[in-house]
């Protein structure tokens, strides 16, 4: 798992776990424990970024996800050994699909997809997203682990895996339209580990304004990160006037992240398009909010228990609009960008929505400055790579303190910045159209397919429950 991992270790780890999980004489209680311990070892280091958001929430999340994989292992132990080769990958993939939406709308970090984006199976994301990539990684690992054991359907599973890989290689990837945008992404720099309540928003804005002043030739569009402008009302702010002056100097529109007050208890988090006249020509409000970061779930209950809910004094208002922005271009008209703000990049469905709505490239404005270390930032780069492969689009990721980068439709990363540095990166981004199979189908068919396989194999291969009979007493009277 980024930032430490090396993709072959995923196969090694799952194969070793599968051998332990499917031993002939493993009982159900031991099976549950094996799965839960495996989950703790998986999530405890790879989700450590949550400590800086909510320490109790981090420990609870690790425990919950570990228990879910423990339950999956319990199901495996209820299956005859010959069918475990099919059941184990399917039920653990179902657990991972559950993490896309549970709890609090989903916590899809530290996933097998993130770990495998650098591996040879990455192209399967173009066919079935993270769900299919998770299943095939687990399935191949299980095949290796149980190669010398009796198994029903091994040949069928092997053929199915090969078909999936070949289909992903031959399937549609999107195509170029012939239009190319000169895109500049601005990273203002600054320290990591700082919360909004403890920082000066004006200072953040000025860092990005200073970095932007180093641009000397006109691009087609300038992209600033998430919420680098934090004001009560943006359209009447001093910051809009200063931003418009830069837009006029460069003769280019700006995509910029803003945070505005709604009232004393709520705010909005949006990415807006500002043109050279200073008009806000389009706006996208973030739909997927960060629990315990942008809003406090169960605020009343936690407050009554003495939890520090004041760390998130106000809740972000969730947006409802489509995940896209129309960007004016010098030749007239506009180009549509799909937009996923920060946390949303971990959800394949958000990027898919914007691309299905004719997004020609993806923009991921983000802000990881609240977190120390680079666990979250590294996994976010990996997620941007997954979204690029899934959708067949270029991705522009930009952050105030890192990482910022350009990602090609094949998942290749270029011009990745360092943490805390001030940087301006620039690239020609080909606008693309067309749909990959994942954009056309989404996650649901694959979740249903994996669920059907798990259910059928489990029902057909369940072990009978043997109840012990009481033995007659042999004690002497």
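^ Assign residues to that structure.
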């Amino acid at each position: 798992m980024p930032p430490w991992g090396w993709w072959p270790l995923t196969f090694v780890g799952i194969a070793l776990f599968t051998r332990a999980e499917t031993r002939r004489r493993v009982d159900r209680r031991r099976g549950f424990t094996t799965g839960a311990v495996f989950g703790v070892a998986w999530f405890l280091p790879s989700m450590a970024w949550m400590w800086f958001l909510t320490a109790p929430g981090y420990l609870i999340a690790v425990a919950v996800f570990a228990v879910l994989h423990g339950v999956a292992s319990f199901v495996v132990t209820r299956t005859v050994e010959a069918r475990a080769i099919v059941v184990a990958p399917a039920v653990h993939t179902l657990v991972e699909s559950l993490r896309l939406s549970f709890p609090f709308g989903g916590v899809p970090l530290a996933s097998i997809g993130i770990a495998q984006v650098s591996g040879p199976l990455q192209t399967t994301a173009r066919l079935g997203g993270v769900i299919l990539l998770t299943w095939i990684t687990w399935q191949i690992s299980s095949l290796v682990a149980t190669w010398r054991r009796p198994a029903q359907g091994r040949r069928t599973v092997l053929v199915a895996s090969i078909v999936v890989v070949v289909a992903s290689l031959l399937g549609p990837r999107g195509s170029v339209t012939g239009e190319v945008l000169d895109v500049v992404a601005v990273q203002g720099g600054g320290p990591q580990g700082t919360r909004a309540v403890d920082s000066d928003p004006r200072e953040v804005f000025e860092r990005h304004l200073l970095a932007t002043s180093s641009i000397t030739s006109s691009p087609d569009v300038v992209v600033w990160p998430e919420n680098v402008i934090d004001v009560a009302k943006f359209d009447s702010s001093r910051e809009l006037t200063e931003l418009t002056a830069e837009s006029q100097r460069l003769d280019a529109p700006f995509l910029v992240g803003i945070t505005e007050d709604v009232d004393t208890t709520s705010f909005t988090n949006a990415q807006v398009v500002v043109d050279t006249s200073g008009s806000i020509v389009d706006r996208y409000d973030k739909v997927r909010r960060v629990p315990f970061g942008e809003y406090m779930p169960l605020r009343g209950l936690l407050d009554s228990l003495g939890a520090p809910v004041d760390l998130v004094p106000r809740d972000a208002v969730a947006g409802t609009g489509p995940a896209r922005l129309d960007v004016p271009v010098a030749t007239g008209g506009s180009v549509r960008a799909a937009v996923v703000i920060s946390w949303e990049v971990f959800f394949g469905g958000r990027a898919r929505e914007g691309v299905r709505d004719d997004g020609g490239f993806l923009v991921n404005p983000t802000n990881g400055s609240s977190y120390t270390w680079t666990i979250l930032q590294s996994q976010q780069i990996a997620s941007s790579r997954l979204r690029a492969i899934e959708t067949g689009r270029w991705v522009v990721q930009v952050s105030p303190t890192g990482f910022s980068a350009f990602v090609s439709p094949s998942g290749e990363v270029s011009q990745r910045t360092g943490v805390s540095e001030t940087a301006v990166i620039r690239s020609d981004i080909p606008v693309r159209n067309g749909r990959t199979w994942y954009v056309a189908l989404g996650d649901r068919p694959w979740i249903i397919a994996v669920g059907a396989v798990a259910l059928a194999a489990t029902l057909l291969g369940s072990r009978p429950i043997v109840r012990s009979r009481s033995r007659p007493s042999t004690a002497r009277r």
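Residues 175-435 form a domain with the Nitrilase/N-carbamoyl-D-aminoacid amidohydrolase fold (CATH 3.60.110.10).
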